[in-house]
Design brief:
Elements: E1 2-4, H1 11-36, H2 42-51, H3 66-75, H4 77-83, H5 87-106, H6 111-130, H7 133-146, H8 150-166, H9 175-196, H10 202-224, H11 230-253, E2 267-269
Antiparallel strand pairs: 1-2
Helix pairs in contact: 1-5, 1-11, 3-4, 3-7, 5-6, 5-9, 5-11, 6-9, 7-8, 9-10, 10-11
Length: 273
């Protein structure tokens, strides 16, 4: 059920509406970029393309030690960024902006759940940025290449090993692990809100809920079957791609929800919580 919009909008209400409209549009653009360009797990895609012969394989094994990572960072920095899943950080930021766009649309009708989703989103992005292997290893690698002292190099190798352990995305309890779970939970909450909002096609919300639910399997695989930890990410990836793009198009297409005390759209969802 919807309530009719008022025609009069105060200057403050108009400014607020413009702000929400901008956030919704920004979220739409970010969602499309997250789905089509900056996807997660570029390292897995690179390995697949190399195995199919689409991309030339270097023949070098995947680095296993800090010394091997430092050598790769020095010789092929872009490849090192890909294999360290650095571009996942870009994806996290874009997905967070998409969630902000969804919040701008759903905030009146699903106040509690969307607010919780925003808290989880902020937590997830903060954890992912602070736990990035790429940032730590690139810093240590630069220091390692510039150092001529053997004792200092040993300390840098030890620090590199610590960064590999604490930043391992498939290790239970690391910062990256909790960032994945936070973002999947936020996605699930917002998807459920989309299913209740008539502005979105119901299948879009259902697809988002399915993708987020599969992604939450990451918790169980990391805890009980570490060798299968990549499986939820692989299975949820196609659903996420379609969900991001469909959500982005919807956010760019539908009018924003009116601020309290005024409206810029023809209807506004009634709070059902």
């Amino acid at each position: 059920m919807h309530r009719a919009a008022t025609d009069r909008v105060s200057p403050a209400g108009a400014a607020t509406a413009d702000g929400w409209r901008s956030l919704q549009a920004l979220g739409g653009i970010a969602a499309i970029l997250a789905g089509l360009v900056f996807r997660r797990w570029w390292s897995s895609e690179l390995a697949l393309l190399e195995s199919l012969g689409i991309v030339h394989a270097t023949g070098a094994p995947f680095p296993a030690t800090p010394a091997e990572w430092f050598a790769l960072i020095h010789a092929q920095p872009f490849r090192a960024l890909v294999q360290l899943n650095f571009f996942d950080l870009v994806n996290f930021v874009l997905v967070a902006l998409m969630y902000v766009g969804l919040f701008s649309r759903l905030r009146h009708a699903r106040t509690a759940s969307t607010t919780l989703a925003m808290g989880l989103t902020l937590l997830g992005v903060a954890l992912s940025l602070s736990s990035s292997q790429a940032a730590n290893l690139f810093t240590l690698g630069a220091q390692f290449g510039a150092s001529t002292d053997d004792a200092q190099k040993q300390l840098l190798l030890a620090a590199g090993q610590s960064a590999l352990v604490t930043g391992n995305p498939v290790a239970f309890g690391t910062g990256v692990f909790w960032s994945y779970l936070s973002l999947y939970l936020a996605g699930l909450l917002l998807s459920l809100g989309m299913m209740r909002d008539r502005s979105f096609a119901r299948w879009t919300g259902v697809l988002g809920a399915v993708a987020s639910s599969i992604g939450l399997g990451f918790f169980f695989t990391c805890a009980f079957g570490p060798t299968l930890s990549i499986l939820p990410a692989v299975l949820s990836a196609p659903c996420n791609l379609v969900w991001y793009v469909a959500t982005g198009i919807a956010l760019l297409r539908i009018p924003p929800v009116a601020p309290l005390g005024g409206s810029t759209s023809t209807d506004e969802p009634v709070n059902d919580e």
